[in-house]
Amino acid sequence: MKITFLLLLLFCLTGFRLFAQSDTPCNAPIMTVSADSCHYAWGTTVGAQYQNDTANGLSPACASPGAADVWYRFIVPPSGAVAITTLEGTITDGGMALYSGPCSAPQFVQCEDDNGVNMMPVIDRSDLTPGDTMLVRVWYGWHPNTTGTFRICFVESNSDCVVATPLCQERYYYTHAYGPGSHLDANGTQCDIYEYQSQWFKWKILTSGTLSFTILPDSIGPANWPDWDWLLYQTTDSIFCTHFVGGNQPFACNGSSSAGPYGATGLNATGTSNSVPAGPGNPYCPLINAVAGEYYYLMLNNFNVSSSGFRIHLGGSAVLDCDIVNPPTAVVAQQPISKVVVSPNPANDWVSITVNGLTNDDHPALRIVDVHGKFVLVETAFENGTFRMNLQNLAPGMYFFEVRSDLGELQRGKFLKR
After folding, report:
1. Which residues are CB-contacts of 312 (< 8 A; sequence separation ≥ 6)?
2. φ, ψ for residue 179 (rounded to 5)?
3. What is this structure's pTM?
4. What is the DSSP annotation of 307-372?
5. For residue 368, what are the contacts with CB-CB under 8 A and spacing of at least 6?
6. Is 358 exposed, middle or buried (0-12, 13-18, 19+ CB in 10 A)?
7. Is residue 14 over pLDDT 60?
């Protein structure tokens, strides 16, 4: 009774969600894939069993299987990019495996052991098929017959160049980047930087001017010191990532963020070199004179694999294109969603976003960000094919939205709040 009370108290105090566990793939809870930052849920293998017959995925190929395991399911979003990452509970060295369907005979895809925070696992891929239902198996690695608790999250990944996060101003990330992605598509030998815990960003110059950026970690300390290293690529190619070769020399790179005040790094007026290797050195490279039409791709790597978040701020006199999006990706071969209609636009207190042919059975989801790329939560109802939003608490300005559904297509648009 005392242990149960303490676990319930821990769940309440930390704000983490608790989901029903499943010992079998077909009864696994379906987890939401977050579109922004990691939202952890508590899990436990207490009371579960280890089963390695065909209906339970046979024996996983890493982390000394044999301990009791539990299962989760998720639906791959239109981007095809998902990171499944874990944090310690009483389990301090977890194992995790990814499977495709059917749930009655899971097909092994990947097994992972120690690439997350401390000795916990993370699986990070951008090559999944949109609309597929995938299965995830978690256990106490290297400790047969031992059970415990852990935390797990499912989030859209931006760890590969092809799914770089478009930016037009400041953005905040609550947790570290999740993994190396599906492709080791970058390395900077002159700065000794490789993809380890990577996060890709991109932006486009609309009006020429100076360009700077700053990476600001949100926590530092002896046990959790961030070390954000980065590679920056400059191009006029709008589909740069589709034929990018990892060994290409970056425009600038810096591996000395851990030597800087508070672990900050980037481009500013104090920078003197475009190539700063790891070790003591200036964590900043010089400002850029950016030209209209140029694209910039930034690979940010958290070498120390801390769990701290960070803020990325773009500055200078150059004006950025806030309409930049990722190239189209493969979608589920089902009936496409028609284009959305926004009314009124500009809007005052209310705005409606109508998607013809979309019903509640398609599980529509709406995501809104401001011009800084910050997620905005507004009161939203979906009825008769229309999202109706209360804008009274929003500041005047431009807002961008995405509509996703089980049909597998992504629709984007924008509206102006007066």
Report:
1. 167, 170, 171, 172, 173, 201, 213, 214, 215, 216, 300
2. -175, -170
3. 0.70
4. ---EEEEEESSPEE-TT--PPP----SSPPPPPEEEESSSBSSEEEEEETT--GGG--EEEEEETT
5. 375, 376, 377, 378, 389, 399, 400, 401
6. buried
7. no
